Amino acid sequence: MGPGPPAAGAGAPPRPLSLVARLSYAVGHFLNDLCASMWFTYLLLYLHSVRAYSSRGAGLLLLLGQVADGLCTPLVGFEADRAAGRCARFGPRKAWHLVGTICVLLSFPFIFSPCLGCNATTPEWVALLYYGPFIVIFQFGWAATQIAHLSLIPELVTNDHEKVELTALRYAFTVVASITVYGAAWLLLHLQGSPHMGSTQDVYDQLGVQDVPVFRNLSLLVVGIGAVFSLLFHLGTREGRRRQVEEPDEHSPLLAPATARPLLLWKHWLREPAFYQVGSLYMSTRLIVNLSQTYMAMYLTYSLNLPKKFIATIPLVMYLSGFLSSFLLKPVNKCIGRNHSGAFVYGAMSFLDKVANGLAVMAIQSLHPCSSELCCKACVAFYHWVMVAVTGGVGVAATLALCSLLVWPVRLRSCELQAPPPHKSPKPAMGV
User: Fold this and answer.
1) Which of 212, 113, 192, 98 lies closest to 148, judged by CA?
2) What confidence score (pLDDT) does residue 250 get?
3) Max CA separation in the chain (angstroms)
4) What is the pLDDT of residue 258?
5) Looking at residue 9, what is its pLDDT?
6) Residue 84 forms beta bridges with which residues?
7) pLDDT tens digit string along 329-341?
8) pTM for this structure?
9) pLDDT(248) > 50
10) Cα–Cα distances in angstroms (integers) from residue 173 to residues 30, 200, 211, 253, in the given order
11) Distance (Å) of CA 53 to CA 1, 137, 333
């Protein structure tokens, strides 16, 4: 007898996610995006210009955060994969997302608030020790939320079209988050300075200790809005359980195909020249973005001597311009194509990006010419050359890395060396 009819629903494609489910997933990273915009744009400005800490102390705290983020990202990813199969009722990735969200909510406001128990006579190193644990907890929570949110995409959808759509929606809310932070910062600075007119107006146009409530309220607003969107994510997103391995039947192959095994392990990537080519390009381009975002507010304040409202309006204009230009990436990507994927590659590039950014900021802060005051005459030219020479030099390095990819295209030799030989069917037996 032939095989019976297929079971009902067997081989049927999974139903696509509803619009509500897609939007619920897309807002799951909104809190992280809000905090990231405020972290990179205003941390150095708040610590140095508002709290009057030294340039090296402010740079040290940013370096601590970047290193903590770089170390936590692969560790959280490893533990999240190990947790698959546990927390079956809530979902292992949503559980990690919840843990990360709680850490961010409880730690981020303290970073942009005055040191509790500190006064004018408190040594700076005491304040730095105070902020350190909150920064580490925040970066751990940020990494846990990011990894859990990204790893949910293959759990929610299966085909490439839906994965691209979820990624696009996620990026759209990243744009909204940055616009929200800069818009809220402009509003708070405007409201803080509006009652002061006349001769005192010039004083309130410059950043100082009087702006501590502005950054504290901005951080509270960020975590408040982010908490609402994180709640919407957990209410509207359902993490599907991994499919159990099906029992073999008479139609199942006895042996898995040889090509199912991974061709490259993490140690193989370290022997690939393409790994270092792409790593150099990725690191340099990320440094351009992060350093320009980090020092733009300092440049506007000390080199151009603009009123403090411009630390919100100029970053907003820059971000909107970058967002509009990103629409050109789709046709360019369609023409050029995409290569070089892998979990280890993404983890290594992310670690390299975060640590390099922290070390670069620390090196720049160590060269600050004003040792005993917030800014001097040399400070005006210092931030000018940071924006021109540092980002320009990194841009040259990115160009050279790109040229190396054009001269020596990405080509994975290990794949060719480890690829199994083509299967040859046995010769038929000769008849007697």
Assistant:
1) 98
2) 46
3) 113
4) 44
5) 46
6) 86
7) 656 556 655 557 5
8) 0.79
9) no
10) 6, 39, 28, 45
11) 83, 22, 44
Predicted pLDDT of residue 192: 77
In this structure, what token pair is assigned to residue 141?
């929570």
Does residue 61 or residue 168 have the better pLDDT? 61
How far, in Å, CA of 59 to CA of 428, rounded? 73
Q: Average per-residue pLDDT in the chain?
A: 79
Tokens for 212? 């501590």
Highest mean pLDDT among 85-99, 247-261, 338-352: 85-99
3-state secondary structure the chain: CCCCCCCCCCCCCCCCCCHHHHHHHHHHHHHHHHHHHHHHHHHHHHHHHHCCCCHHHHHHHHHHHHHHHHHHHHHHHHHHHHCECECCCCCHHHHHHHHHHHHHHHHHHHHCCCCCCCCCCCCHHHHHHHHHHHHHHHHHHHHHHHHHHHHCHHHHCCCHHHHHHHHHHHHHHHHHHHHHHHHHHHHHHHHHHCCCCHHHHHHHCCCCHHHHHHHHHHHHHHHHHHHHHHHHHHHHCCCCCCCCCCCCCCCCCCCCCHHHCCCCCHHHHCCCHHHHHHHHHHHHHHHHHHHHHHHHHHHHHHHCCCCCCHHHHHHHHHHHHHHHHHHHHHHHHHHHCCCCCCHHHHHHHHHHHHHHHHHHHHHHHHCCCCCCCCCCHHHHHHHHHHHHHHHHHHHHHHHHHHHHHHHCCCCCHHHHHHCCCCCCCCCCCCCC
The alpha-carbon radius of gyration of the chain (Å, integer) is: 26
Residue 209 has, within 13 A of its CA and on its CB side, a CA count of 7
Tokens of 289: 């973005």
- Residue 235 CA to residue 13 CA, distance in Å, equals 25
